[in-house]
Amino acid sequence: MTERGLARKTQAIFPAPGHDHGRCAADALAHAEAICAARSERLTPVRRRVLEALLESHAPLGAYELIDRLAADGARPAPITIYRALDFLREQGLVHRIESRNAFIACVHNHAIGDPVVFLICEKCGAVGEAGSAAVADTIRGASRAAGFTPKTPVIEIFGICAHCKAAA
Ligand SMILES: [Zn+2]
Ligand SMILES: [Zn+2]
Ligand SMILES: [Zn+2]
Questions:
Q1: Ligand 3 mean position to 169 CA, how many Å?
Q2: Ligand sitting nearest the alpha carbon of 128
Q3: I want to staple 154 with a disulfide (CB 3.0 to 4.6 A). Which of 89, 116, 135, 138 is the partner?
Q4: Relative to the alpha carbon of 97, which ligand is closest?
């Protein structure tokens, strides 16, 4: 299967509270399985569990919160186990790191690894929306190229209030 064939339907950047999140999580997990199969990579049980834990909501989790979630299954995993699983998931473009929160979030978009990513971070509910934009990506690439600069982690984090929190205020 080509990666083009793995394209997914667009999702709301901030899904409404009470949306069918089981569906979001199941779709994202199916996507991860397809990506790993297409690349002959193994979604081992611990990698899968880390991804599942991140898919429990649209809010990011820190490494120690992930350890706590996985500890609920039985044995408490060592931090290195979690970090290795996160490294793998990030290399595959399935998880992103939110630098300002020192936390991780499952990517729900099917974009190329290394594509610039814009995170919209709600200061009220903690939800993080990933706004993929080809125009923003092109602008960043152009500006970097003009400066003779090779961007490594093209991630933009924007803080504010999501539409659902604004509506509830
Ligand atoms: Zn959801
Ligand atoms: Zn992403
Ligand atoms: Zn919010």
A1: 10
A2: 3
A3: 116
A4: 2
